[in-house]
Amino acid sequence: xxxxxxxxxxxxxxxxxxxxxxxxxxxxxxxxxxxxxxxxxxxxxxxxxxxxxxxxxxxxxxxxxxxxxxxxxxxxxxxxxxxxxxxxxxxxxxxxxxxxxxxxxxxxxxxxxxxxxxxxxxxxxxxxxxxxxxxxxxxxxxxxxxxxxxxxxxxxxxxxxxxxxxxxxxxxxxxxxxxxxxxxxxxxxxxxxxxxxxxxxxxxxxxxxxxxxxxxxxxxxxxxxxxxxxxxxxxxxxxxxxxxxxxxxxxxxxxxxxxxxxxxxxxxxxxxxxxxxxxxxxxxxxxxxxxxxxx
Length: 295
Hints:
Layout: H1 2-12, H2 16-27, H3 36-45, H4 47-50, H5 61-70, H6 74-83, H7 105-115, H8 125-141, H9 152-155, H10 158-170, H11 173-177, H12 180-206, H13 221-224, H14 234-246, H15 254-262, H16 271-290
Helix pairs in contact: 2-5, 8-10, 12-14
């Protein structure tokens, strides 16, 4: 589900693109709610994957960095926005959009070797040590969360190597167990609600013929985010109110619910957290019974 979840959500842009909106809402204090799933996702993958040129430090950066993320130059976006037009295929750069990529390098190495039958290897101290060293090197280059390391001398022994492997794999558990598709489902509901509330303002700003198709919902964020320090934040405030309104029960922790459930870690829940988790499980079972809500 980890690999499928990333492919589906990257294809729709349903997680990484709303991350830009959430960051702006929090920074400008336009929302009181905490979207815990989004905060956890940014922690798992790092801000560098969400913001290709660094996090925005002023209002005029919000839309610009969003468009760089989806593969459109800021100049092109500004021109089309002034004309009240939507992005066309030719507006996208050859570099394309930037997506979330796995940081679970140990898992990916083992998956390639054993699941995909590629570059098969024998389990030896040397081969396992090679995987660990490669993962550590890649993690440092990406600013990856710290993996508890074992000194080179300890790794010489089989026990030391296996200990290092266990610790490295354990650090990847949360990414592998996170409920990407569950978060996608709720993110899409939030985007739909934002379209309903923001559409009158979008038509007023960009013309009466301005419409958004279902697949364009994540790209709507580029029109909600202010592109200039002097631009009105009315739509950003509306989006914040929508998030606050929908932040009830289990809505903003769906991905984390799955992470708690499948990670194998013995979490200690408060009574309130336990009720939230059970409410989500009950809702999922109910949806499964009637076959509705396929987003």
